[in-house]
Amino acid sequence: MATSTKEYTVQGMTCGHCEMSVKEEVGEVPGVSAVEASHETGTVSVSGEGFTDEQVAAAVAEAGYTVTA
Length: 69
Hints:
Layout: E1 4-11, H1 16-27, E2 32-38, E3 43-48, H2 53-62, E4 66-68
Antiparallel strand pairs: 1-3, 1-4, 2-3
């Protein structure tokens, strides 16, 4: 399986602490190898293999934020 990178729009991140919370939770998803979050653009970029959109959305929700379509 090849490594892929997906970008998600996340609602509610307003500061660096928000970014850290999202990165920590998403980083624990099996198969995720790298996470970059930006409260300025409201996006999270996830790299790895074998993770699903549902897993990422659940991790973002665990951090207290919402993935939007």
